[in-house]
């Protein structure tokens, strides 16, 4: 005969396990985050949440799996990595690598850390555990800015255009750009495209690469 106390403890423990395993990750609402499509997964990173706080939340949605958003929360998977990419908003991301399975992260606004944090981070989504790597590039480094666009060509050159920034943290002057900067991800070097004064300086735009 089962002891009633043991039965109660067993049921309670079972309920805890079920609740943990069934708990759905629901990200907070946000703006100015990035999204990157790799395979069937859309990876989301950072942004400014409803409390106007900067985040470095990192999660994905696997669109190969069926779901009904009218009945349940979207099946996001949280893969946030502590102490990795700084909290930020307005950054730019794009895919790169031989199999286009890595994420290239550039700049964004990171608040009071503007002058102490590197501009570039990368992450290989095929590695386990997932790890953001800091890319320290000093030669011909470009200005930190936000709300720019980024795309990668078939030779793994990352093209960054436009955006805005205030130079060093605390500067009152806000600058918008119409320059194109090119980063060779195989050699880790910058090159600078010519300034096209026929294009208006801008931020908050998009860029699309068609092979």
From TrEMBL:
Source domain of life: Eukaryota
InterPro entries membership: Kelch-typ_b-propeller
Gene3D superfamilies: Kelch-type beta propeller
Signal peptide: 1-22
Keywords per UniProt: Signal
Protein name in the entry: Galactose oxidase
Native source species: Rhizophagus irregularis (strain DAOM 181602 / DAOM 197198 / MUCL 43194)
